[in-house]
């Protein structure tokens, strides 16, 4: 039978299928929280033709206006010839989720297979063991020569089979049964993509049946209590095995807390999450796996492993299905990890013909350069300023954070995430704020806030009034006054110094890497900025403060959190993960530590000015 899906698709529906099953089979996003049981009220669609009578579930979960207008819960409606429906697009307000939604469009081939099996009941004539009878059915259905089963699934198989009257759903990976569930649970299959940053960890929950992104959450990496950057974490972990385990536990805890929050908010059971992909820098990768990091920080900077690794969730203590597969991205070198590989996979335009530079901005900033001579990558320690850390009023990009700043002689105009009172400043606000302060003459190219009495004659009184002597952190410039109920948000001399260190390290890294292949910045066809806050940076700002050497601003592009997008794409498609593994072996790793050209470039890159 034909079902029309507005705006412009006609799909096949089969006898006995629900509208939700038709949508899921055709990879059309529909919210499915209760596995089609009619209890969550999330799967509504709008009927334009063939509208059925409302069911009890419709009456319970939809308003009378919605019912009159033609909305119905898609899991409660059997498909019928000639039905015409319009899926209800789930609105996503989070700025990260909105950016991710379009970027993960990809063919579904994640490798996790849910198969519903009805197996013959045992009898005196058929005394095959429970697993034997399930195995025989699976061999027929899958048309393969072998199927194995994990002990975890085998142990519970007898009770699961009998609880579901011998109707069971098996979840398979590489022809191996990971788990068995009572009845038909084929509609509930989820995965998580994890981006472990030095400062923040982000986890996205994805429906593996429809490739729909359900939600992304992020939180400060709990390891930050033991050091702000990778070097301090390595030195802490190297002090004793117990301390290394403490760091492993801290990041595991951060990930589990985020997963539990996602589960709670979406109503999705943890055991239905069967796959997880992880991108991170090499140090975070090692600490997540509990590996020794001591040799990462001393020449010749050797990791325990650069390959990808596949483990079960129970081996790592991750709270998804215990047999859920965890795949970590391969590392390129000691300080260029799977997050760089993920960023390239998430922004594949950098692999096109021509010369392309990808900059993954974070506490540990990675640079990837692709030219006709091949691919190379290096990393430079930018510090946590871009993520709002070590900045007096720094905060992550969440409601209340200043994300954009405009300074004119009339004063300061700020844009705050969530349109509320400013409570701090995030990375994009910091970069633009300092660019605007420089252009307005509030700071000089050395980053020094001018003395309003001596050098402030060219400033309007409104701007002069915002410069205060401050405390031991030097002068400060007020971006937002808190009034009676809040505190002022300002940038002081130390904050500006932190940004100079971060941007100087990035700029010096770019000059050194590009110089190594004998091309100039002008020879680049594109500079792609990746990183959580990169999408919110303006090309004008980063060129003006010399974060990136001078180039035609039209060549500067942004790719959002490309590493996390790469993790999501690999979650949804096995070939993408295979490509990532292959890519990692082809990229030449460049070590900047001890490189004299880099040291000299670093000295010249601290000024807040355009640079060549
Ligand atoms: S009501 Fe939950 S999926 Fe339909």
TrEMBL record:
Name used for this protein in its record: Putative electron transfer protein
InterPro entries cross-referenced by the UniProt entry: 2Fe-2S_ferredoxin-like_sf (IPR036010), 2Fe-2S_ferredoxin-type (IPR001041), ATPase_NBD (IPR043129), Beta-grasp_dom_sf (IPR012675), Corrinoid_activation_enz (IPR052911), Raco-like_middle (IPR041414), Raco-like_middle_sf (IPR042259), RACo_C (IPR027980)
Residues covered by the 2Fe-2S ferredoxin-type domain: 1-91
PROSITE patterns in the record: 2FE2S_FER_2
SUPFAM superfamilies xref list: 2Fe-2S ferredoxin-like (SSF54292), Actin-like ATPase domain (SSF53067)
Superkingdom assignment: Bacteria
A Pfam family reported for this protein in Swiss-Prot or TrEMBL: Fer2
A GO MF label: iron-sulfur cluster binding
Gene3D superfamilies the record matches: 3.10.20.30, 3.10.20.880, Domain of unknown function (DUF4445)
């Amino acid at each position: 039978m034909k079902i029309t899906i507005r705006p412009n698709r006609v799909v096949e529906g089969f006898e006995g299928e629900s509208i939700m099953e038709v949508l899921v089979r055709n990879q059309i996003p529909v919210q499915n929280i209760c596995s089609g049981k009619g209890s969550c009220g999330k799967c509504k669609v709008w009927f334009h033709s063939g509208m059925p009578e409302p069911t009890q579930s419709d009456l319970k979960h939809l308003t009378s206006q919605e019912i009159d207008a033609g909305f119905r819960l898609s899991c409660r409606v059997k498909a019928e010839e000639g039905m015409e429906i319009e899926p209800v697009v789930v609105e996503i307000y989070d700025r990260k989720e909105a950016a991710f939604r379009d970027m993960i469009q990809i063919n579904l081939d994640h490798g996790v297979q849910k198969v519903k099996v009805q197996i013959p009941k045992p009898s005196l004539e058929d005394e095959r063991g429970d697993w034997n009878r399930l195995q025989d059915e699976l061999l027929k259905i899958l048309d393969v020569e072998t199927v194995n089963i994990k002990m975890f699934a085998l142990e519970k198989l007898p009770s699961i089979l009998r609880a579901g009257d011998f109707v069971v759903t098996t979840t398979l990976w590489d022809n191996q049964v990971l788990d068995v569930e009572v009845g038909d649970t084929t509609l509930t299959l989820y995965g998580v993509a994890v981006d472990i940053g030095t400062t923040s960890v982000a986890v996205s929950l994805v429906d593996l049946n429809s490739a729909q992104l359900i939600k992304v959450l992020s939180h400060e990496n709990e390891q930050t209590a033991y050091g702000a950057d990778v070097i301090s974490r390595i030195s802490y972990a190297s002090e004793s095995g117990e301390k290394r385990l403490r760091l492993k536990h801290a990041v595991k805890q951060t990930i589990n807390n985020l997963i539990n929050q996602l589960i709670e908010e979406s109503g999705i059971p943890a055991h239905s999450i069967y796959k997880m992909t992880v991108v991170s820098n090499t140090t975070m990768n090692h600490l997540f796996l509990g590996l020794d990091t001591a040799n990462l920080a001393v020449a010749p900077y050797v990791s325990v492993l650069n390959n990808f690794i596949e483990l079960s969730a129970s081996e790592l203590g991750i709270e998804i299905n215990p047999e859920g597969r965890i795949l970590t991205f391969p590392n390129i070198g000691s300080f260029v990890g799977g997050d760089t590989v993920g960023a390239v996979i998430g922004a594949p335009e950098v692999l096109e013909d021509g010369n392309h530079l990808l900059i993954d901005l974070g506490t540990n900033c990675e640079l990837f350069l692709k030219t006709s001579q091949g691919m190379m990558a290096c990393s430079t320690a930018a510090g946590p300023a871009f993520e709002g850390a070590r900045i007096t009023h720094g905060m992550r990009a969440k409601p209340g954070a200043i994300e954009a700043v405009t300074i004119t002689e009339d004063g300061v105009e700020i844009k705050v995430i969530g349109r509320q009172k400013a409570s701090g400043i995030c990375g994009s606000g910091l970069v633009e704020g300092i660019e605007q302060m420089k252009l307005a003459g509030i700071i000089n190219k050395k980053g020094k806030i001018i003395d309003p009495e001596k050098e402030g004659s060219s400033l309007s009184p409104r701007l002069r009034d915002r410069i205060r002597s401050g405390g031991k952190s030097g002068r400060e410039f007020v971006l937002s006054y808190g009034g009676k109920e809040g505190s002022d948000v300002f940038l002081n001399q130390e904050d500006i110094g932190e940004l100079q260190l971060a941007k100087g390290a990035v700029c010096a890294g770019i000059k050194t890497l590009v110089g190594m292949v004998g091309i100039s910045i002008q020879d680049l066809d594109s500079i792609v900025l990746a990183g959580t806050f990169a999408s919110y940076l303006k090309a004008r700002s980063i060129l003006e403060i010399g974060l990136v050497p001078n180039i035609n601003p039209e060549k500067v592009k942004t790719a959002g959190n490309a590493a996390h997008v790469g993790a999501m794409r690999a979650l949804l498609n096995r070939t993408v993960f295979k490509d990532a593994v292959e890519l990692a072996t082809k990229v030449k790793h460049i070590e900047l530590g001890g490189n004299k050209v880099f040291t000299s470039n670093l000295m010249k890159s601290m000024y807040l000015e355009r640079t060549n």
